[in-house]
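User: Hey, quick favor. My workstation is busy. Could you predict this chain's structure for me?
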Amino acid sequence: MSERIEAGLKRLFDEHRIVFWYDAARDMRAEYEAADLPDVEKVEIVNNEFGLKYRMLRQEPKQKFLVFKDGPAPEMADNWLLDLHFACGVFKADQAAIWLAELGLPVQFEDVVRDHLEFYKSKGRIETLKQLITPSDTKTDVLRRMLAVCTGAEGALDTVIEALLGELAEGRDDAIRLMERSGLTALFWKQVENAYGYASDEPDFMDFAITLFQSCYRRTLGEDSKLNGEALLVFRRWKNNRLGAKAFETLSGKYQDILRITDDVQDRDIKALRGIDHFEAIDRQIIRSLVSEMASQTVSSADVLKIVRERRQSHWYPTYEDIYRAIGYATEFQQALAEANLTMTSPSEGVKRYVSHWFKIDQLYRKFIFHMQKSGQASLLAALFESVENRYTTNFLSAVNDAWQDQIAGLNEWAISGYTRQTDFYMDQVAEFRRRDQKVVVIISDALRYEVAEETLREIRKLNRFDAEIKPMISALPSYTQLGMASLLPNKDLTLCGDTTVTSFGMPTQGTANREKVLGMGRTDDRVKAMKADDFMALKADDGKEIFRDHDVLYLYHNRIDIVGDKLSTEERLTEATEGAVEDLTKLVRKLTTANFSNILITADHGFIYQHRALDKTDFSVADPTGGEILDTNRRFVLGRNLNETAGMKKFRPDELGLKGDIEVLIPNSINRLRKKGAGSRFVHGGATLQEVVIPVIRVGKRREADVEKVEVQIIIAGKSLISSGQTAVTLYQTQPVSEKQQQRDVLAGIYTSDGTLISDEHQLTFDYTSQNARERELPIKFLLAREADRFNNQDVFLKLRERIGKTSHYDDYSSHRFQLRRGISTDFDF
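Assistant: No problem, here it is.
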């Protein structure tokens, strides 16, 4: 108490030389006597008014005096010191006066305290209020700040609303009840009515919240609503603020049912809904409509991709990201398939067209399946999956390989003119570096088919100062692991054994240890090493550099795809495995360069074909292989001696395959599988389809200079740079497509005054458009202006694109455009 009294007195003495203290209740003498005020003379009124007056005004005109009276102030007619009383400060020592003095507020603000005593019973609330008050505050300003303190808000009414919405979502009403006890409820609802147009004889915050959701939904649809445009602005700010995300989701879920939004959206065109994200039901309806229209082919690819791009701004996009991405990939798949001419006049042309265009169809199909599975909501995509699966299998996989089969049917030896054979890999690729006395590392990723490698290439190229190129190579046949791995080593007299193992130089080639021995046959005195990629990744940095120092050729064996796909129990997780393989290989390249390897080759032992839907019995080959001795039957090949020519299968002698020995091979035509009990049938390899035999060779190099940058974004304004209404529209343009070296840019867009005050809603935007069509890289955006903008009318304001600094909460300006704000002041917004 004494500290507060002294503080209050000191503030009065900052403004007055003489301060009166009337102890009306005659209970403050002890506090008066204890008050320690340097440079202040303490005197009492005890029938000595004239003497005091003479002393204070004539004798000591510069001395500060605290004039104490034991009792109430006299009536004006009897008060000999009345002129000084009015001219000087008066200290009131009751609790309300102490609080008023502590806040540094003049006596005219006394009712701000006395009418709301409950608020001031907390020292914490007083301290917080003291930090918020400014010298220019009116009584209403102070009351507004009290509302903010009650709710734990930052200050303005919109932050009070956000805080109360947060409490409502948590099922609490602590702040509302404190406002009631503090006598602030009437003020609050008056403020809400003035700001947002909410009027009710019995105002209730839950009712306001429901009305807020309903009004913002209708207003965005262009329909009449109970609340005004300022309410929509506050709603958007709260919804888009990550701190309020959980509360928004909770209330949106509740009010979606109360307002029957699910029923409402079913009768609306998705074009009307595409810019709205107030309820999760909207996204689900958009997804259902897109899936239905895509399955029936009643919507254009351009429209689908545009809607999917727009929905990235939806609050619910993270929830449905995988479904939207699946829809996007399905759309691109359909477009690529529609544009594909699946014909060829020679095997060479078939390979050329596959690596130029057709591989993309395999890739888009795989990406669609992956995101459909990852979404965990395959039922929403069921109709689209059936459409994509049917078209992929019938219109592409079977069609292209039937055409390919026609080309390879007449081959007398397994070789495609113009394309390197897998058995020449060591001499053509590895030995090239050794002839220049350069060290080289080869990563062999089991079943890394060409389209997965192409995605890996793009991910590697995204790394700063990394470059890479890809070329096709034709795998050995049959296209299975043991033969493929042996073919990638230095090889001589490759021989198939009846148990599917392979020898080279008369030595076994299965297993890492055996492969290292065969690798040593490549070049005299080369220091060679073969090891698993996982083991290399587990090495410490110095140990990796030691391997580089002590070896000339390093072969790393990576197995993520085949180990999952080649098992009946896990083959349906094939697309997940391919995503992991791309990530693994990218990390492995970075680790190798850290260990000083600069010449890196990535290749595969074979590819694969994959269909996500379980095969029907009719999908299997009816061919019945026969011959003198059948040694092994795989889904995609048969090994044996003296095999018979069989309808539906192509026979190869070992010399036609570039192999030694007497083991012959039968390969089923096109994509047909042979029946084999207990084996998987969706993921298969060993045959001669394009997907199985066209394998990649990626060459990775390192650049000296940084070569990765973000795409540029321009602000495009149609007409004058003038804002004359409650909203303004602009177009943001991504100047170049996203590529490996031109990467996406994320910005926060809003309209600000010259002093940095935000006067609009904000938009978190991602520019990652890959289209070569400039029009498809445009993003139209509308900004809603807050009422606060009225304070800056007839001034310059700025549309700013800001970028986050790392992972901090701070932003840097990236780009801006100056506007003139020239609006007629109104009570609502002219939408």
